[in-house]
Design brief:
Elements lengths: L2 H18 L7 H12 L8 H11 L1 H10 L4 H8 L6 H12 L1
Helix pairs in contact: 1-2, 2-4, 3-4, 3-6, 4-5
Length: 100
């Protein structure tokens, strides 16, 4: 499977996670697992700011929980520390464009 196909599948998986899991701290592990697998994709550029913007907008409690986890996990610290001031509509547009 090519990297573009992996990227498409991963973004679709993100949308499924956003729909399936409630915005509760108990859901943070599912999103953490997603982020770990997402970072393994070799697509360039990897739309990580877009992904983090969607999580921030749709699952603020999950993001807060991930930030609390960042004390013991450098990867999470970097991801949650990203400037996610991207407009949600821009993030949605870019991700939808990838999965078309």
């Amino acid at each position: 499977m090519g990297e573009n196909q992996k990227l498409k599948m991963s973004i679709k998986n993100l949308y499924n996670l956003l729909e399936e899991y409630p915005d509760e701290s108990t859901s943070a592990c599912e999103f953490l697992n997603f982020l770990r697998s997402f970072l393994r994709i070799s697509a360039n550029p990897l739309p990580i700011k877009e992904v983090m913007t969607l999580i921030k907008e749709n699952k603020p409690t999950v993001l807060f929980t991930l930030k609390k986890m960042s004390n013991t996990n450098m990867m999470v610290r970097i991801l949650t520390g990203l400037s996610t001031d991207m407009d949600i509509r821009v993030a949605e547009y870019r991700l939808r464009k990838i999965i078309k």
